[in-house]
Automatic annotation (TrEMBL):
Gene Ontology molecular-function annotations: alpha-L-arabinofuranosidase activity
InterPro entries the UniProt entry points to: GH62_arabinosidase, Glyco_hydro_beta-prop_sf
Any one cellular-component term (Gene Ontology): extracellular region
Record-linked CDD domains: GH62
A GO BP annotation: L-arabinose metabolic process
Organism expressing this protein natively: Glycomyces buryatensis
Signal peptide: 1-27
Catalytic activity line of the entry: Hydrolysis of terminal non-reducing alpha-L-arabinofuranoside residues in alpha-L-arabinosides
Protein name listed in UniProt: non-reducing end alpha-L-arabinofuranosidase
Subcellular location: Secreted
Length: 367
């Protein structure tokens, strides 16, 4: 039966509206998917094969007090951003030895004036403690501070804002593992570093004799059950694979970045490698003095050169947890440097902290 003109007109209008509504829903779904994608980490095919950086001036130095006089250096920083504040843990060094300090602030412009809390006032106690690494271990809901005290040590704390809350040192090993004793020569066992994937937690350390060690335990067993270390990497020239190893997960990828400090012809610098597995094998990225990850040669100093050393530090992370993820397009590195004219006893060197920002970031185009 033929429909009246008015009804046909209404049906046509309704059909048009339905098509428009469907198109709008489809467009909204596409937009939302794009928005969700854009809120994810920017995808990069690979890191660049060479790097360029810009450095701040000196951001932080030691703050001696009556109980901690004559501190020469603030060094070995570890950093996370949590609850609107930067939380920095670092070594303090003097002719009397080492311990650690905690600093927090909301903006890097406040770093120099922020008060220092000396961690020998916590359960960590007095004596040799150095080279901290901090992360939040999600399975336990606890903060971990990993450091060296002659062994591979750790303390825990439910609240990073409470520096008095750190527990007494506990150890991953009963003593120095045999493989390290066999290879350390006249070096030192230093710079313990933990990073985890979904299954395992890995502990790296160095011996200042050309060896990088790695051991592992499951996430479920951590911090217990560390395996006997294996040599993860080695160099005949010990100064080419010195210490201060960091391993990070590149957020949004299946790739890991390994950094190790070395000695160059001018100052200390970092070499780098990548892998699709924390355990390796690792492929060279920017791993030479001629093509470093970060050194005085590929760092500019807009406010004036204050150091020739790009030494022990940590990447600014994308989160706080045990996976140690970093954003490959927004790399920054908190490091230690010092006056190039300084000299004398190592423990009395005037280390200060500065911040690198990558200037040749490999971010994917938005076009």
């Amino acid at each position: 039966m033929k429909q009246p003109l008015r009804l046909r007109t209404r049906l046509a209008v309704l059909a048009t509206a339905l098509v428009a509504a469907f198109a709008a829903v489809f467009a909204a779904a596409t937009f939302n998917a794009a928005a969700e994608s854009s809120s994810d980490p920017v995808q990069v095919e690979q890191l660049p094969s060479s790097f360029e950086w810009s450095s701040s001036g000196e951001l932080m130095g030691p703050k001696p007090d009556a109980a901690h006089p004559n501190i020469a250096g603030l060094k070995d920083p570890s950093v996370v951003f949590h609850d609107g504040r930067w939380h920095v843990f670092a070594s303090i060094a003097s002719s009397a030895g080492y311990n650690m300090v905690y600093i927090n602030f909301t903006d890097w412009s406040e770093a120099a004036s922020a008060p220092h809390y000396f961690l020998d006032q916590s359960g960590i106690g007095t004596g040799y403690r150095a080279a901290p690494e901090v992360f939040f271990f999600e399975p336990e809901g606890l903060w971990y501070l990993v450091y060296q005290d002659g062994n591979a040590a750790y303390s825990t704390n439910p609240d990073i804002n409470d520096p008095a809350g750190w527990t007494a040192p506990q150890h991953f090993y009963p003593g120095m593992p045999q493989i390290i004793e066999d290879n350390i020569g006249d070096g030192y066992w230093v710079d313990m570093w933990v990073t985890c994937d979904d299954v395992d937690c890995h502990l790296f350390s160095s011996d200042d004799n050309g060896h990088l060690y790695r051991s592992e335990t499951t996430v479920g067993e951590f911090p217990n059950g560390m395996s006997e270390p294996v040599i993860a990497m080695e160099e005949a020239d010990k100064y080419a694979l010195w210490e201060a190893a960091n391993v990070y997960k590149l957020q949004g990828t299946d790739e890991y970045l390994l950094l190790v400090e070395a000695f160059g012809t001018v100052g200390r610098y970092f070499r780098s490698w990548t892998s699709t597995d924390i355990a390796g094998p690792y492929t060279p990225l920017a791993d030479s003095h001629e093509n470093p990850f970060a050194s005085a040669a590929n760092v500019s100093f807009p406010d004036g050169v204050w150091t020739e050393d790009i030494s022990h530090g940590e990447m600014i992370r994308a989160g706080i947890d045990q996976k140690l993820e970093i954003k490959p397009c927004e790399m920054q590195y908190l490091y230690q440097g010092m006056d190039p004219n300084a000299g004398g006893d190592y423990n009395s060197l005037p280390w200060r902290l500065g911040l690198l920002t990558q200037t040749n970031a490999p971010c994917a185009s938005d076009e």
